[in-house]
Amino acid sequence: MSIAGEFSDGRASMRLDARLPEGNVIVCTGHGDAHSFLVRRLGLSVECPRCGEIALSVDLAADFWRPTDAHRTQAPPGQTHIAPVG
Q: Which of 5, 39, 56, 60 is the most buried (most CB within 10 A)?
């Protein structure tokens, strides 16, 4: 399915969960399991290194900054640990 089709159907499989000094934490639910990964910068799109799902960065950022999103977190600087993908 195309990116435009995925988002128009309301079935986005990725979300921006946190913005850390190390980068952006993305949670992906592609292929039925939830997993997360870190990207330093949001380019035009983000591809999950585990399952290959793709999301538009502009949609991830817009959803993150919506006032109704209660899932996002801001971690204090220097108090984070991100497990490597793989």
A: 60
Q: For 2-53, what is each residue's pLDDT tens digit?
A: 555 554 455 568 999 999 999 999 999 987 889 999 999 999 999 999 999 9
- CA nearest neighbour of 54 among 5, 20, 21: 5
CA distance 86 to 84: 6
Domain borders along the chain are 3-65
- This model's pTM is above 0.90: no
Q: Which token pair is 44? A: 């035009």
